[in-house]
Amino acid sequence: MNLSLTGHHMEITPALRDYVGAKLERISGHFDQVIDVKVTLSVEKLQQKVEVTLHMPGNDIHAECADENMYSAIDLVADKLNRQVVKHKEKLGDHHRANGALKHQAQA
Question: Under 8 Å CB-to-CB from 66, ≥6 apart: which residues?
Fold first, then answer.
């Protein structure tokens, strides 16, 4: 997983870089086919904003959150991405269950 962080109107400290990396490692635990992750951290007046785009085979997932604290905004966007990745993984699952398919049910 390639991680690229950019800061808009702010400088990214090593502590922020480590925190974002640690939060996004949870996503690779759920779904290991993530090609790259682009994170943009920005400051707009009193709002700290985080935008993340995950690039995977066949799909891109985007999430953004804003909060007064940058660390809580990172937490919120990580939770959003976690839910979206789990939903994407469930969609990729096998939909043809052996006993649930119509052709396997007993005909009357």
Answer: 44, 47, 48, 49, 50, 73
Please state the φ and ψ torsions of residue 44, each to the nearest 5 degrees: -125, 100
How many domains, the chain? 1
* 96 is a domain residue: no
Residue 42: how many CB atoms within 10 A of its CB?
18
In a domain, 104, yes or no: no
- Residue 77: give the domain boundaries: 2-90
Amino acid at 55: H
Q: Which residue blocks in the chain are alpha helix, DSSP H?
A: 14-30, 70-92
User: What type of residue sits at position 53?
Assistant: T
Structure pTM?
0.81
Residue-wise pLDDT tens digits, 70-95: 999 999 999 999 999 888 888 877 66
Q: Across the chain, what does the average pLDDT equal?
A: 86
In a domain, 105, yes or no: no
Q: How far apart are CA 79 and CA 82, in angstroms?
A: 5
